[in-house]
Amino acid sequence: MACCHKLLAVTVLFAALFQATEVEGGVRFSTLERNLVVNAQIQSQNVSSGVAKVGVDSLAVQWNLNSSLEIEVDSEYASVKVKLCFAPKSQIDRGWRKTDDDLQRDNTCPKEIATKLYRSEGNFVVWRIPKNVPGGEYFVRAYVLDTQAVELAYGQNTDDAKTTNLITIIPITGRLPSIDIAGIVLSLFSVVSLCSFLLAETLLDEKIRFQNDLLNHIGVIGPRALAFAFTN
Ligand SMILES: *[C@@H]1O[C@H](CO)[C@@H](O)[C@H](O)[C@H]1NC(C)=O
Ligand SMILES: *[C@@H]1O[C@H](CO)[C@@H](O)[C@H](O)[C@H]1NC(C)=O
């Protein structure tokens, strides 16, 4: 009987734990107010291109509280996390970039641009686009966080459907950066090491065989010859 009670207790405990993790999740994006106004512009060497090149160009992002809101709305605002997000076009056929209303499961905005303390008068950041950002269509979103880093509100530089003001980022052209060269050198190095190892082993085998032969002939050759063989 005691065992059954224990089993029951354990089952209940597990069920409770499971439910807790199920329910917990993150903040739902659909519950956030769009209280920030966000602008993002490409700062490019080539002004006429209208696209941003990784490693060279930057994004200038600026945000502030929507001035038509009542004053107290930002009393809990502590910081602003600015992120680079995939536009729907660049999510097609890529499950790992999928949008989820639960922000803990959302993969729309994988790249953090900056986190800054919240200031009601707004703030900005200029961010050089790193080389590891994949080419595609993007927008910029800023989350307002409280002191516990829980999302309270947001703003983005595009409409709700994420189709306007998109930023086109183009990747490094021509793959031959240092990473590839390093890879080739490493492969060559491992092939050479393997060959040397095999060669060394073969030579060692030969040597052992030679010594065995020598020992077999000790009786015939005599101690003087043996001394000669080992000193040479
Ligand atoms: C600037 O961009 C335009 C349009 O993409 C292109 O035709 C031109 O070659 C670029 N100039 C430089 C210096 O990269
Ligand atoms: C600011 O908020 C008002 C009221 O909610 C809204 O109508 C307006 O579009 C917002 N402005 C911007 C730039 O988001």
UniProtKB/TrEMBL annotation:
Keywords: Membrane, Signal, Transmembrane, Transmembrane helix. Residues 1-25 form the signal peptide. GO terms for molecular function: nitrate transmembrane transporter activity. The keyword rRNA-binding does not apply. GO terms for cellular component: plasma membrane. The chain crosses the membrane at residues 181-200. Pfam families: NAR2. GO terms for biological process: response to nitrate. InterPro entries: Transptr_NO3_Nar2. This is High-affinity nitrate transporter. It comes from Marchantia polymorpha subsp. ruderalis.
